[in-house]
Amino acid sequence: MTTDEDRARIAERLVALPVHELIDVLRRVLPQYTEDPYGIRTALVLAEATDYEDEPGLEVELVAWPDRDYYNGGLGIDQGLWEHGHCEKCDAGVVSNAKRAYCPYCGSRCGLT
């Protein structure tokens, strides 16, 4: 079991990462918490929530993992989460720093614009 100090040190290191590197670290961790009991699949994912000042409601999109093969082992452009789209397989709204990414829920390739 970790202490509060251990978790604070981990959090401090994560906060220091640029967004595209943070996403890559979480890509390695969050899928480990996916469960499929009784035919009901749940997955721990990273999401971005946006509240537009002049529109009611909250827009929530899953943060898609950059397609590292497409980017020759890289993480895509370090530009923030500016690329948006939908996963064709599970119909989730997705956002990423990369135009070519994977849906964090179903693992399908997504093309973002």
TrEMBL record:
This is Uncharacterized protein. It comes from Micromonospora jinlongensis.
